[in-house]
Amino acid sequence: MTEPDQLIAAIDAAASLDALEAIRVAALGKAGSVTALMKTLGQMAPELRLTEGPRLNALRDAVSTAIAARKTALEAAALDARLASERLDMTLPVAATPTGSIHPISQVMDELAEIFADLGFAVATGPEIEDDWHNFTALNMDENHPARAMHDTFYFPDTPGSDKRMVLRTHTSPVQIRTMLTQKPPIRIIAPGRTYRSDSDATHTPMFHQVEGLVIDRGITMGHLKWTLETFVKAFFEVDEIELRLRPSYFPFTEPSAEVDVGCSWAGGTLSIGGSESWLEILGSGMVHPRVIEACGLDPEEYQGFAFGCGIDRLAMLKYGMTDLRAFFDGDARWLRHYGFRGIDVPTLSGGVGA
Ligand code: PHE
Question: Which residue's alpha carbon is nearest to atom 7 within ligand 1?
Fold first, then answer.
């Protein structure tokens, strides 16, 4: 083999990018063998240069081309090796994956979204750190309203230079305001999320969950509210016969207002939903107060609506039989294994929302 042939063969056989780089430096580098040959052209007799010039240029080009080709091949091989090492087998059986579970609250929120989506409700959200105006004032509770005192509000310290007082939202009702300010009627939304009040015992935690419901359109009545709640409760508890009791109540942002109880029985010491032997309070509701509609820039003569607010934690306790609310937030793995849901069991109306 001649020397140039040996060089090309060495390039083609280079096993790594580093080895290839070493060959390149040895041939084409400042002190490289090909570079040295090129330098001899300067001292050559003109007639010799005439033949040697093209020969040496061709040699240098051949070496460069061979190096570039080998480099591409080595890079492609490195990429293939990396892709092969990072390969994930998507066909592995589910049992081999870690056994986390869906928290009952997340499960119930998914169930609510599924049930209300079927009735044409979208899911809306709002911030948990809310300003005083959205949480209270726009909901017909001005500075001195006595209802404010009932909320055990967590207030943030005043921000210097700002007259906005921030709170941890005490209910999901501010999402009513945010929705009416940004969407045109007809509005049909539910707003599930975290809420906060300074309260703690077996049935109260400082952080809890509510779902708000809001419908705004022309000609909405209490009848629409009652039908919607009945349909929701039947679907949620998966019973065809239920009794609802609407008790007159008071909320500053609804008029008239009603607290809603669901009929149940404790026969045999266990709770079952249905009948009218006993009653469980499940939510607060009413017709959206004209002043609230007005605060959102809508004409209360033209638009009416209903709203309701319901404790999600309590719904979960009633449906899945937990007794102590505090356990929801302890993060005890044994509790989660027992009460949690499998990730692939997504609630659907066709499969039964509690399945
Ligand atoms: N926001 C009320 C609460 O937290 C519930 C409610 C919502 C009542 C909507 C009426 C209408 O208790």
Answer: 309
